[in-house]
Amino acid sequence: IYSRFTVNEHTFQKAGTSQQCGVCLQLVRRDALLSLPCQHSFCKACWEQHCTVLVKDGVGVEISCMAQECSLRMPDDFVLPLLPSEELKDKYRRYLFRDYVESHFQLQLCPGADCPIVIQVQKPRARRVKCSLCKEVFCFKCRQMYHAPTDCATIRKWLTKCADDSETANYISAHTKDCPKCNICIEKNGGCNHMQCSKCKHDFCWMCLGDWKTHGSEYYECSRYKENPDIVNQSQQAQAREALKKYLFYFERWENHNKSMQLEAQTYQRIQEKIQERVMNNLGTWIDWQYLQNAAKLLAKCRYTLQYTYPYAYYMESGPRKKLFEYQQAQLEAEIENLSWKVERADSYERGEPSDLENQMHIAEQKRQTLLKDFHDT
């Protein structure tokens, strides 16, 4: 890649008379002026100062001619000899390298912090890629966190909206709610949304506070937003309130799954420590307990997909396709919570009895794959 950046000195203008530099206004010999293809000429000292300041300021490769209203980009082999130190030359070469990668449709820079890796694919599209060095997982097309089934443009809109409306949604950030039966304050310290009150043993849904048992076959009906069909005929203030209500509904669920993933990451760590303890106590090998680790990893993958279904649903137009999506979303969410419930109680599993947990893993992954197959545009 660097071969295209070979440095060649530009020639000075040849003439015997003097001329005033248009920047410093000093009278210099014409053969001491340096000229671009646009025929604008200035003294070498001014060109050097111009390039040095812009490279230090991080302008990148878009360094234009100093002449007023001239937008000609200065050639790479013109800029490099003018930079006074190797440090600045190396900085500019990095800009050139980045510019080359960003202009190549099959290449993408890893967005990981200070990661130098460039990733190449044969068929550029919104696909999941993982850096071999820093292990960052991202979308190849937009370099955001991978966001299937939501497309790149929609996730950008959603993340911008979340940032803009963060103050409005601050009240959602509380980790505590009251038990709907005995009113004792309950803190959510696990990723699962199936809650059980420590005092009265009442089982309820963390999201809607409804009785868990009455979710029945319609698990996670509370994940569907019920639109007001008459809102278009109401006042602007009413429409604004309805729009905010809809956004907060989806934002709360988006944020809740994000927090669940953080809590389940702690569960994964506890599982690893528990496996290590059992192996050290000769209660089996790592292979015997590997299914617990696999279950926690799959749970993280499934919940990650589920989190990104909410921006997708927020921007979807009402209709049969959205109803189908919400049905599959509810099915996936139900199976993820069943899996989370089992993973958080992994300590109770004995060696040689993984079938119940493995069955739940298979069901959850099947639901995830079905939703992506039907709604993720590839």
**Terminus-to-terminus distance:** 30 Å
Helical fraction:
40-55%
The count of domains is 3
Radius of gyration: 30 Å
Indicate the structural class. mainly alpha
Average pLDDT, rounded to a whole number, is 83
> What is the CATH topology classification name of the largest domain?
Four Helix Bundle (Hemerythrin (Met), subunit A)
Major sheet summary line: 2 strands, antiparallel
**What is the CATH C level class of the largest domain, in words?**
Mainly Alpha
Order of helices and strands: EEEEHHHEEEEHEEEEHHHHH
Record the strand order, biggest sheet: 1-2
Q: Which architecture name of the largest domain does CATH use?
A: Up-down Bundle
Give the DSSP E fraction (strand runs of 2 or more residues): 5-15%
Tell me, briefly, the overall form. Answer: elongated
Number of discrete helical segments? 9
What is the number of E strands? 12
Question: Which regions contain 5 or more consecutive residues with pLDDT less than 50?
Answer: 1-15
Outline the structure in words.
- The chain has nine helices and twelve strands.
- It has 378 residues and is mainly alpha-helical.
- The protein has a two-stranded antiparallel ribbon. Strands 3-4 form a two-stranded antiparallel sheet.
- Strand 1 (18-20) and strand 2 form a beta hairpin.
- Helix 5 (236-280) packs antiparallel against helix 6 (286-307), helix 6 (286-307) runs antiparallel to helix 8 and helix 6 packs parallel to helix 9.
Brief account:
By secondary structure, the chain is mainly alpha-helical. The protein contains nine helices and twelve strands.
